[in-house]
Structure formats: structure tokens, C-alpha cells
Amino acid sequence: MSAGGSALGSSLSIDGGRWQRLSEALQRWPPSVRVAGAVVAVLVMAVLLANVIAPP
Amino acid sequence: MGTDEVGRDLFARVLHGIRISLTIAVLAAMAAVAVGTLVGVLAGTLGGKVDAVVMRTTDVFASQNHFLFGILLLVLFRPALGGAGAVMLAVGLTHWPSLARIVRGELMSLRERPFISAAVGGGASRWRLARRHYLPHLMPAVGLAFVLTVPHAVFHESAYSFLGLGLPAHQASLGNIRADGQRSLLAGGWWIALFPGLAILVAAMAIGTLAEYWREHLHPRWGSELEL
């Protein structure tokens, strides 16, 4: 594997670890908090994209 | 979701209502947190007579019915600031006392800690103490107070607009759409009041649930103090 390829591989594995930690953190949340987090994410998207979804 | 009494798409209006109401609520919560932090830092750092005067003033504000006090502020400042500005001011000036108490309490306990004594002994200025030592320790309480204030501010914006004291009637805030819905209710248009009401409820519950979870993990003692 070239130097560039190994750098890419190591960055991907770091990324994978970060996502794994994030998913583990999310799994520790109670279901109600997970639902609330999803709702807040939808609300934030609605605030940001309101003019795109429903032009005034 | 259908249309309202003059044929406007209710989904679009609720979507824009969420945008307007949440934006105003976030800005109003920021104003409340800024006032609370400033007052708490003033009382906690200066101490002595300033602390006594500031905290008694805080007690006076905390003892008032904040909704009625907010209405008074709206009536006074709406002509000058407009609906959105007056709602932010009303929420900002009625929701700071509990945070001011927490910030002051945290500062009082911080002042007794050895690393603060070491910084003072090392010649740190009051500004450096505030920036390097006090503020980083206060950020969790301030951040939590901000998140707890947002759903409360959503309720207030909706209630003030519903009463005709908040945003102008043509702006699609959730409170204004509910006011339209109330007028259509007797004519059979139940859905016009239902959907903005659900949006208020879902937004407030979701943000409130996250804030409560954060509060339980961060500092269970604040449970009784941060009742906003």
C-alpha cells in the first residue's frame, strides 16, 4: 500500500472510532432522550430549511 | 394539514411559525441568560453591599408574577421595539433571577477554592480571574439555563402573540396561528388551532426532555434551583 493509501486507511479508522464512540454514547441515552434529540434535530432542520420547503 | 380560514396552506404557516417562534425563543433565552449571568457575576465578584443590594433586587424580581410583568413590559416597549423585540425583552427581563442566584452561588464557592487563592496570590487581575477561572466554571450552568429557558420562551412568545400583545397578526408565529384557529374553532375549523398547538407542545417537550437529562447528569442539586 502507498503512503497516501495508508494515511487514508488510518484516517478512516480514526473516523470509524469516532462514529463508534458517538453511537455508543447515543445507546447510553434513555429512549425518551433519544426521541427528544431526534425531534430537536428535525426542528432545527425545519428552522433552517423552512424557506426552501415552503417558500413564502 | 389543510388550509386556514382564508385558504393559506397551514403546513407552510406552521413551518414558518416554528421558524419565527423558535428564533425569537432562542434570542429571548440568550437575553435572559446574559442578564442573569451579568447580575450573578456582579453580585458574586463584588460582594459586600453591592451583593446585598443586587440580591434583594433579584428577590423582588423573582417574587413577581413573571407573565404579568412580561405583559407590562410588552405594553411599555412594543411601540418602540416592535413585537419581536418587545417579546425578547419581556422574556429576557423576567427569566434571569434563578440563573443570577446560581451564578452568584457558584462564584461564592469558587472564590474559596485553592486555585483561585493561588491565582490571586500570583497577581492575577480581576479581569483575568473572571476570564480564565470563573467563566469556564460557570459555562455548564449558563448553558443549561439557556437550554431550559428556550421551551419556556416558546410558551411565552406563543401566549403573548395569542393575546395580541406579541408579534403583529400578519406574522406566522405559532401563537398568531393559534389565535386564528381560536376564531375559526366555532365555525368548525378545529385543525387550525390543533397543529400549531401540537408544534408548541412537541418543541417544548423535546427541548425540555434534553435539558432535564443534561441537568440530571451535570448537577442534580440545580434541580430545585433552576425552575425557570
Number of H- or I-type helical stretches of chain A = 2
Low-pLDDT segments, ≥5 res of chain A: none
- The helicity of chain A comes to over 70%
Report the count of strand segments of chain B: 0
What sort of overall outline of chain A do the alpha carbons produce when their principal axes are compared? elongated
- Provide the number of structural domains of chain B: 1
Can you tell me the number of structural domains of chain A? 1
Class by SSE composition of chain A: mainly alpha
Gyration radius of chain B, rounded: 21 Å
CATH architecture of chain B: Orthogonal Bundle
CATH topology of chain B: MetI-like fold
The tally of beta strands of chain A, per DSSP, is: 0
| Overall average pLDDT of chain A | 76
Major sheet characteristics of chain A: none
Q: Element order, helices and strands of chain A? A: HH
Nearest-integer average pLDDT of chain B:
85
Strand-residue fraction of chain A?
Answer: under 5%
Helix and strand composition category of chain B: mainly alpha
Q: What characteristic shape of chain B results from the CA principal axes?
A: elongated
Q: Give the assembly state of these chains.
A: heterodimer
